[in-house]
Amino acid sequence: EDVFLSILPLSHAYECSLGLILPFSRGAHVVYLDGAPTPSMLLPALSTVRPTIMLSVPLIVEKIYKNKIRQMFTKTWVTQFLYSISFIRRALHKVAGKKLCQTFGGNLRFFGIGGSKLDGVVEKFLADAGFPYAIGYGLTETSPLLAGCTPGKVKWQSTGPKLPDIEMKILNPNNRKIGEIVVKGPNVMAGYYKDPVITASCFTEDGWFRTKDLGYIDKKGNLYIKGRKDNMMVGSNGENIYPEEIEATINEHDMVLESLVVNNKGKLIAMVHFNYEQIEKLHTFNDEAEVNLAKRVEEIKKELMEYVNDRVNKSSKILEIIEQPVPFEKTATQKIKRYLYN
User: In the prediction, which pLDDT does 45 show?
Assistant: First the structure.
């Protein structure tokens, strides 16, 4: 009886396995769009198809929150003030959540999010709103799911526990119990096609698959992802720096759509793509005669620098913000192609 609405590329293992093979094996329906999931294409499809299950990546739901939901509560000084009060904010989120569920057709019972880490502020909204979101973690090499939890059982910023029949541990944890996530199980690949050298480098001597993701497991078995091993930086004091954590803090700011933190000769620099639509609306909100966008961006840079550095540890403080005027180049699952900007 379930109806899937597919919005991700089938060339990726996430959508191909969980969005095609799984529903077909259970006799569910899968509906495909005639084009890219733009708002003009997606909204009519949602009302027509009324899906019960969808799979997504964080960027899609983060854009919905920042461009639609968040703006509902920041139109006036009154709504901004009310939104700053925690119990009122939760009540407003519940109201917005009901409207969001109706926008998705009214039948949605499972909205899977995977591919990268979900913004913490957005996740709090989804939880308050009662939106049926679920978090999953895995890789193409692991077919792809390794850990996850169903709606209502999600723990904030965690991917949830490992799946049955999968062994998982943290390799060489540091004093914060963070280390590389390694796994064993029937879902793990045998190796890369005709490439024994690369295959050998991806397994420990005793057969554990190296995910190259860094994280830790709490006492209840919930997995938390801190970032990619290849992205981790080491500060001048020898402390590990996880750029994804800094980016998550940057992206919480209302005027930011996406960001990338790079290390330039020991100097942490944040490349930021701002929410220009929201910046232009702000000048109308402040009753200004005209908006000097460049001047306003410079002001927001200073505000953002203070906002971020007040919230991260000493080793993770950024020293410069560079404006990224156009969106970052991304993969099929909407991950920023970091190698293009380092």
Answer: 95
